[in-house]
Amino acid sequence: SLASTAITCFTRGLDLRKGTEDVLCPANCPLWQFYVFGDGVYASLSSVCGAAIHSGVITNTGGAVRVQTLPGQENYPAVNANGIQSQVLSRWASSFSVTAGTKSAALEAVGRSVSTARPSTGKRPKKTLDKKAGNKDCKADIAFLIDGSYNIGQRRFNLQKNFVGKVAVMLGIGTEGPHVGVVQASEHPKIEFYLKNFTATKEVLFAIKELAFRGGNSNTGKALKYTAQKFFSLENGARKGIPKIIVVFLDGWPSDDLEEAGIVAREFGVNVFIVSVAKPTTEELGMVQDIGFVDKAVCRNNGFFSYQMPTWFGTTKYVKPLVQKLCSHEQMLCSKTCYNSVNIGFLIDGSSSIGESNFRLVLEFVSNVAKAFEISDIGSKVAAVQFTYDQRTEFGFTDFVTKDKVLSAIRSIRYMSGGTATGDAISFTTRNVFGPVKDGPNKNFLVVLTDGQSYDDVRGPAAAAQKAGITVFSVGVAWAPLDDLKDMASEPRESHTFFTREFTGLEEMVPDIIRGICKDFLDSKQ
Description:
Layout: E1 5-6, E2 20-25, E3 38-39, E4 41-43, H1 48-54, E5 63-76, E6 80-81, E7 84-85, E8 89-100, H2 103-116, E9 141-147, H3 153-171, E10 179-185, E11 190-193, H4 201-209, H5 220-230, E12 244-251, H6 259-267, E13 270-277, H7 293-297, E14 306-309, H8 319-326, E15 342-349, H9 356-371, E16 381-387, E17 391-395, H10 403-411, H11 422-434, E18 443-450, H12 459-467, E19 470-477, H13 482-488, H14 493-496, E20 497-500, H15 510-525
Parallel strand pairs: 1-2, 9-10, 9-12, 12-13, 13-14, 15-16, 15-18, 18-19, 19-20
Antiparallel strand pairs: 2-5, 3-4, 4-8, 5-8, 6-7, 10-11, 16-17
Helix pairs in contact: 3-4, 3-8, 5-6, 9-10, 11-12
InterPro entries: ECM_Assembly_Org, LCCL, LCCL_sf, VWF_A, vWFA_dom_sf
Domain VWFA: 141-326, 343-513
Domain LCCL: 3-96
């Protein structure tokens, strides 16, 4: 029999390489951490062990599973089974199914599974924790948005402070561990302390103890929006590449609307959790503006980001499961935004019909698009290629990893002047510029800028680029034929094709291109 591969709770279908693979799932995976899409046939984005439990092939004690790769499909349904709520996905490129694996293969794998299954955060081997550094396995910048409204009252406000204190202790705050701050929501939000103020648990506990109850309406929506926009700046101590999290504590229900605040938080790349305590009773529901307030505010409406406690009394047992959620950085789906998770390649026409002064306008357009993104070694990346009959890589995706360096590299591009072979240039860019990053985490975009008819075929090379996972936007100026532009652009072609008579018209296209990239990025994540 085939030997099984031991996998972790988080291994997805798309992480497996073979058409049929025998795997061994570890025991005690936290059910709420599973991402599963579909029922019976699962999108390859799904966790393998999650799908196996969902379909009843194994229980949470783990075991052997055979995974069969299947083609992609449309409309994976959401079904609640065996403690796991699967989610809807409208389309995905590949799928898999799961059946019970063989016992003998399982036995061979048992020896190996122990080392790859992730230890539960509860009982970790006593390693000398560097107190100052904190828990390095928990990467998070967290704002606790506490309820300071008349709803909660002074007495329960104090119980809330105790609970937040316990969570802070268990997180393992430290210079290299999680950092936390507190915002109080009432009539008007007030930032009580920032991430940068304290990096030791003792100091945080003291600051929490000192918090004074403000009272007023529970304008949680207003406070959430304010926190998402103001709290996580670099000067206030947010760290690059660390997930940003807001934990909203809500006693009862909000007096204002959370929907817009939820949208703003997602746009800012912030993961919103809602801890609701004493949720509205049937009689009270009439006073709640929007019964679905939790679903509208959380990062994703998948059960992971919402958390309920019946009352503020006896909350100790709720501390650890909440901390485990806050420390699962793979689950922070809202950390990736279009601004920090794309590669944008610019393919710039350097033909002689453009002329030096118009070429400067083209470079200005490229700069203005690039400027909108968070360029860094762990963020978005930019590359540029200039072409005539020939191609020249001006810089690749890994050459410059700060925005300033990228912008100065764009400014110093020298105008080539020559013919126009756009098809060849697309093939060159797909191979040499996107080739090295094709397995990376970012989504790939190519913006083609041209002012005329290509001497070669553009349709074949553009189709190959799209097949390689690159979304193509075509931007034409002056004599660029619309048919060529449409042939290059990704579907739907209308929203990926741009044209202006004059080079001065490029400037007003900048926001549309940025919006187009962000829309495609979000659609690919649904």
